Amino acid sequence: MMIEEKSLNFLEEIIEEDLKSGKYTSIHTRFPPEPNGYLHIGHAKSICLNFGLADKYGGKTNLRFDDTNPVTEETEYVDSIKADLHWLGFDWEEERYASDYFSQLYDFAVRLIKKGLAYVDDSSADEIAANKGTPTEAGTESPCRNRSVEENLSLFAEMRAGKFQDGEKVLRAKIDLTSPNMHMRDPIMYRIRHAHHHRTGDEWCIYPMYDFAHGQSDSIETITHSICTLEFEVHRPLYNWYIEQLDIFPSHQYEFARLNMTYTVMSKRKLLQLVNENFVDGWDDPRMPTLSGMRRRGYRPVAIRNFCDRIGVQRRENIIDVGLLEFCVREDLNQIALRRMAVLDPIKLVVTNYPEDKIEIVAGENNPEAPGQGGFREIPFSRELWIEAEDYMEVAAKKWFRLAPGNKVRLKNAYIVECTGSKKDASGKVTEVHCTYIEGTRSGQDNSGLSVKGTIHWISVAHAIPAEVRLYDRLFQVENPSIEEGDFKEYINPDSLQILHNAWVEPSLQTALPEDHYQFIRKGYFSLDAYKSADGKLVFNRTVTLKDAWAKEAKKK
RNA sequence: UGCCCGAUAGUAUAAUGGUAGUACAUCAGAUUUUGGUUCUGACUGUCUAGGUUCGAAUCCUGGUCGGGCAACCA
To answer: Which of A74, A364, A409, A419 pairs with A228 at a CA distance of 20 to 30 A?
Structure first.
C-alpha cells in the first residue's frame, strides 16, 4: 500500500530543521490576542497554527494577552477570548499578559537608556511624525536626541512617577533616522497614558508600545517560534534589535498571510463598526465571522478546525471562498445531525381519502448516515398536513418532481400520494392542495411496486409546533467589500437575515437544545438559537443550506 | 521616485532541478423514500522576457502585476 506523505508547510519545514539541527530540543509558541474585540475565523487560523504546531512537535503554547493599550482593552474581551479558545478545543500551557511584564519592560528600558540607546523626547506627536521623514527622505533628529544618560534616566523616572501629562514626553529608541525601514527611525518605546488598565489599574501611567513589548514578552516566555501576520514583517528588524541590545533569549518571528474570506470583512475595527452601528445584533450575531457568531449559528468546532487545516498556510495574500467553509460545515453536520421535518413556508395539504379522525404513527430515521445506530423517532400522520408552499405548482415545470395536479410524490416516511388539484380564494391564490393517498405504499410496508421521483416533507396540522426560523445569507453583496470604492458598509446585503414567523416543526423538536444540531430534511441544517424569542416560540437558526440541485436547474432558465 | 514581501486552474494548496497533483467550485452521468449523501467522469493552471542546465514551476537577471511600510494602535 502506498503511504501518502503529507507535505509540510513552510513553518513546519523551519521547525523540523530547527529540531534536526539541534537549535531547539522542543518548541514553544504563543497565541497573542489583544483583548479589544472578539475572536473571528481569521484568529482561528492563527490559533490552529500555533496550537497545532506545538501539538505536532510535542511543544507548548501560551495564551498571552497583548494588553499594552489600556484605552481599548477590556475584561469582557479577555473572557470571550478564553471561552472561544476552549470552545474550539484548545488548552494553553500558561495564561499570561503583557501587563505581567510591565516592571520588567521598564527595567529593559532603563537598560537601553544606560547603554545610550534610548532617550526621552519632548517633541509633540505631530513633530515626531514630521521629523520621521518619508520612505524616500531621511528623518531629522529631535533636539532631545543627545540628552545625557543621567538626564534621560531622571526624566524617564519622572514620566513613570506621573509628573507629565499625556503626550508631553515619550521614550524613544536611538537607532537610525536615515533607515529605509521606517520602524527603525527612533521608534517610540513608551508613551504617557493616564488611563485605567483592566489589570494593573492605576499603577502605571506610562505604557510600552507593541514593538517594545511583544518581542521581549516572547523572550521572557522563551517562545521559540513567534508566528504573526505579514504586516509585521517590517517590524522584524526592530524585534531583533531589541532582543540583541538587551541580550535576552532570542525568540524568532515568522510571518504568514492572514485569512481573508469572500463576502465578509475580517478586521476587528470593521466588525466593531457593524456591532456599534447596529448593522448586526452584537458580536455573536450568526452572520458575523466571529467564533461566537458561528457557534450561535450552529457551526461545530471540528468543522472550523478542518477548514483551517484545508486552507493551508503561506506567505501570499489570499481570499478563501466562503463556500469552502460551508462545505466543511456540511461535511461535519451531515455525519451527526438528527433528521427532522420542518415546514418553513406552509400551505395545507388535504389527503381527501384519509379518514378525518385517523392518526397513524410512522417512524422516521434519525440519521441515515449512521445506519442502524441513529435509531428512529415517532411522527404522527393524519388527514391534514402542512407542506412547503414551494413544493406545489399549478402547472408543472420541466423536470418537476414535486406536487402538481396528476403528479405522484412520496410523503417522507409515509404514503405515496397523487395530487388531485387545489382550492383557491377569490383572487386565484392557492389556499389548499388536495391529494389522495395510495393504500399499500406506507414506508416500510410498501408492496405496491410504485416508484416516484419526488419525496417531500410534511407535518401533521394537529400535531405541529409553531416556530420562528431565521435564514441567514452572506453579510455582504460583493466578494471583497474591503477593496470596493467608498465605505464598506455600502455593500452590506440587505437580505442577510430573513425571519419566518409561521413555520411549523415536528413534535419531537419540542425538547431541542441550543447545542443540538438538526437537519431539517430538504431545507438545511438548523440549531436552536441561544436566546429565547419574545413570544416564547422556539427559534431556529439556519446553520447552512443543503446543496440544492433543483435551485440550479431552475436558475438555468 | 525608497525599502520589504509575494506571484501555480475560478479559489486555495502540493510538486524542494526530473510525468504539474489534490481539495473546493463548475459541468456531465450513476445510485437514492432528502433534487441531500455517496460514487464515476470531464473541464480549466506554472505572470512575462532572457539566462544557467541534458532537463526549470523550482536556480539567476530584467520587467510586469499585487500586497505591506511614514499611529504616542496592535
So the answer is: A74
